[in-house]
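Lab meeting, item 3. Inverse folding demo.
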């Protein structure tokens, strides 16, 4: 350790050697002008900063759910601060949340197995928030996995993944997840045509046997789960279906799915054939598919389906005969179809075209009603005339991809991939209003609730594929760049760049933060994945170890700062099932649980019960501990798993400790505890003399502190009982435990006091 004198010398040397840098630092701490000069900031920068900067303790107006791309997760961040709030484990394990480590969440991930095989990644593309009357309601989030056709349900009450459904027919999936205006159905469309059956079908049979598919998954809002038995699909031609959207208002009851490669090209570059990219971009138009899903649901209810791999499918012949499936040409290699907030139009942008096309649903409906068709595709599906279906076409830039709507009437924003721009335009009048450069190669873009019946305007995020020179370099693999743009005025203004270091996000959705009502704790003993009381819940004092059906069940509890039990001894070869209930009621008092060598980390939030089942296959000593820094004595939140070799008897000998305590130790601890109680009483006095009941967070803190003081009283009783029996060793240790609860109560009390001081509490009589 450095001596005092040499430390002082070190300080002087350091100050001198800092020299000029030290001066710059002092300039930095000065006025606004000084800081601007030192950091090279302009007035415009300051304005942008003022629009995004969120002071400590401040909240964001909007919350974004972004796809986490290949990570198989969802990224949650705030707008306008662009601060990342959470990564939600969805299709892949996420150790911090214990997702894929505790038995309960393993069961959710296991739903995502495909033909018995565990899939360790997901390619998430399109999140969708549940809707009521076409507006986001903040209850559920859905997201797709493009690579392994799957859909996941996330409950926004606790931001946890509850269900994964595998599409039994598709071999890839892109046009999901999209929610119908009242979330009756979640829609997904396949991407790459493939045979319905799971076996081998040669490409020579492409036209007859390969198919596309749209599935409508029935969502049971009460259960918060998809019901596969009430879900159905519609067979489509082997075009590469791309993105989808549900109609609303006048177009409610219909869904739209665009496509590319209607050439039905099958590639073969290795044989000298032109590659997919040539064969799939030959024609000037592809097809948007229109499906009357309400009528399709009636056909399903009437049994007019065929079972394919266990799923009910309305076959193309039936769909054509019943008049629920139509095609409209769309220019060229389109990407995305976006229904306007009023449901009167939908916009399609062709990647290889400079135009965005605005389709008029009323015109389309009239053509369908009059059976006015321009022809049929090779499968007999009626094709509508492009010109007769259009409202207008607008030249928006090179490589337009996706569209998002503003709260202002008729205003839409389109991402322009090749030009690296966002174009703002009027789809009613058909004219371009503004363009802004972004960095670089935008994919999706997202305005606030901009894909709903009630867009909120204000901000737009450009989800850029490339970041190139925007951030400090971190190697050849760059983060992606989400750029925040102010759209409140006539001209778009770039505000902020946020690197996204997780997967390649595709789409994202935003919601007004006020619509989200997540809980802060679970009911005591809750299995958060089934949303039911856990059969393995335990309460303090009821912890036990029981053997049942060859499994050793440990019913334990977690609370600041101990794990009960602290010693678990089993025999080699035993199957052990640990069940921990976090019995805290305090907000944010999560405990973790990890054991050496068993590949486990559990996250046990207040009230939650989680389990971890494993085979104690190797004799040894395995320390376990809490992995969340939960309290001052967090490091002491520990225990031992002992696995004794087969046939060796459990030792009944008392544990050996390093220290025993005397009456003098006891008296000293007692004196200390009494003094501490004095401090606690003064803090309690301070709080209760103020109007603390007007502050909800303080009421919660006071409840928590009361709990701790009750625990303290309990430990005090035990200490006194041992002291009466002159067992000063145990009396001292329980007195120490009593003190530990006092410390926790004092810590909470001081937090409450600070809160009251900062929020202007007043003295009451
Ligand atoms: S997609 Cu990736 S930028 Cu999957 Cu919606 Cu367009
Ligand atoms: Cu509980 Cu650390």
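The presenter then showed the designed sequence:
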């Amino acid at each position: 350790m450095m001596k005092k004198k040499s430390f002082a010398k070190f300080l002087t040397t350091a100050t001198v050697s800092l020299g000029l840098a030290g001066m710059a630092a002092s300039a930095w701490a000065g006025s606004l002008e000084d800081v601007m000069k030192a950091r090279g900031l302009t007035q415009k920068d300051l304005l942008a900063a003022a629009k995004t900067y969120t002071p400590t303790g401040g909240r964001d107006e909007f919350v974004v759910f972004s796809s986490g791309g290949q990570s198989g997760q969802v990224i949650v961040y705030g707008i306008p601060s662009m601060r990342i709030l959470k990564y939600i484990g969805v299709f892949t394990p996420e150790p911090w949340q214990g997702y894929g480590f505790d038995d309960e969440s393993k069961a959710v991930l296991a739903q995502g197995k495909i033909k018995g095989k565990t899939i360790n990644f997901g390619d998430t593309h399109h999140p969708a928030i549940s809707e009521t009357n076409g507006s986001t309601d903040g209850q559920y989030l859905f997201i797709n996995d493009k690579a392994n056709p799957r859909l996941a349900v996330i409950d926004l009450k606790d931001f946890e993944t509850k269900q994964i459904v595998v599409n039994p027919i598709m071999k890839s999936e892109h046009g999901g997840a999209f929610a119908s205006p009242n979330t009756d159905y979640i829609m997904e469309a396949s991407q790459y045509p493939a045979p319905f059956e799971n076996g081998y079908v040669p490409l020579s049979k492409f036209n007859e046997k390969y198919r596309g598919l749209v599935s409508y998954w029935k969502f049971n809002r009460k259960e918060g789960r998809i019901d596969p038995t009430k879900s159905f699909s519609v067979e489509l031609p082997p075009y590469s279906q791309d993105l989808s959207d549900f109609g609303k208002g006048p177009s409610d009851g219909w869904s739209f799915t665009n496509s590319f490669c209607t050439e039905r090209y099958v590639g073969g570059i290795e044989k000298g054939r032109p590659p997919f990219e040539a064969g799939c971009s030959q024609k000037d138009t592809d097809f948007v598919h229109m499906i009357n899903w309400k009528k399709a649901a009636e056909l399903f209810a009437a049994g007019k389906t065929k079972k394919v791999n266990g799923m009910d499918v309305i076959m193309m012949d039936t769909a054509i005969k019943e008049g629920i499936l139509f095609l409209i040409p769309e220019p060229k290699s389109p990407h995305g179809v976006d229904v306007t907030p009023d449901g009167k139009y939908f916009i399609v942008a062709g990647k290889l075209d400079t135009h965005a096309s605005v389709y008029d649903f009323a015109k389309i409906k009239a053509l369908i009603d009059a059976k006015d068709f321009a022809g049929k595709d090779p499968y007999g599906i009626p094709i509508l005339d492009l010109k007769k279906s259009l409202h207008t076409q607008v030249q928006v830039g090179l490589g337009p991809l996706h569209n998002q709507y503003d709260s202002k009437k008729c205003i839409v924003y389109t991402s322009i991939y090749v030009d690296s721009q966002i174009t703002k335009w009027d789809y009613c009048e058909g004219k371009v209003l503004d363009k802004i450069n972004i960095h670089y190669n935008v994919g999706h873009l997202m305005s606030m609730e901009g894909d709903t019946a009630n867009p909120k305007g204000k901000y737009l995020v450009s989800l850029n594929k490339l970041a190139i020179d925007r951030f400090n370099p971190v190697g050849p693999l760059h983060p992606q760049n989400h750029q925040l743009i102010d759209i409140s005025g006539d001209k778009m203004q770039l505000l902020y760049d946020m690197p996204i270091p997780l997967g390649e996000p595709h789409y994202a959705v935003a919601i007004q933060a006020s619509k989200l009502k997540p809980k802060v704790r679970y009911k005591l003993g809750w299995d958060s994945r089934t949303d039911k009381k856990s059969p393995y819940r335990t309460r303090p004092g009821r912890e036990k170890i029981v053997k049942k059906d060859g499994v050793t069940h440990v019913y334990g509890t977690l609370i600041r700062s101990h794990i009960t039990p602290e010693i678990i001894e089993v025999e080699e070869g035993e199957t052990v099932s640990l069940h921990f209930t976090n019995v805290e009621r305090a907000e944010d008092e999560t405990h973790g649980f990890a054991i050496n060598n068993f590949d486990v980390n559990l996250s046990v939030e207040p009230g939650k019960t989680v389990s971890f089942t494993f085979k104690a296959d190797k004799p040894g000593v395995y320390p376990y501990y809490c992995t969340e820094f939960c309290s001052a004595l967090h490091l002491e939140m520990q225990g031992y798993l002992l696995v004794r070799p087969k046939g060796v008897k459990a030792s009944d000998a008392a544990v050996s400790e390093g220290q025993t305590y005397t009456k003098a130790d006891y008296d000293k601890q007692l004196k200390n505890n009494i003094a501490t109680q004095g401090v606690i009483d003064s803090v309690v006095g301070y709080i209760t003399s103020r109007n603390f009941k007007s502050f909800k967070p303080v009421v919660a803190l006071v409840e928590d502190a009361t709990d701790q003081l009750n625990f303290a009283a309990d430990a005090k009783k035990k200490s006194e009982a041992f002291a009466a029996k002159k067992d000063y060793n145990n009396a001292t240790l329980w007195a120490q435990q009593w003190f530990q609860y006092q410390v926790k109560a004092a810590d909470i009390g001081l937090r409450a006091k600070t809160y009251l001081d900062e929020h202007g509490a007043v003295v009451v009589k």
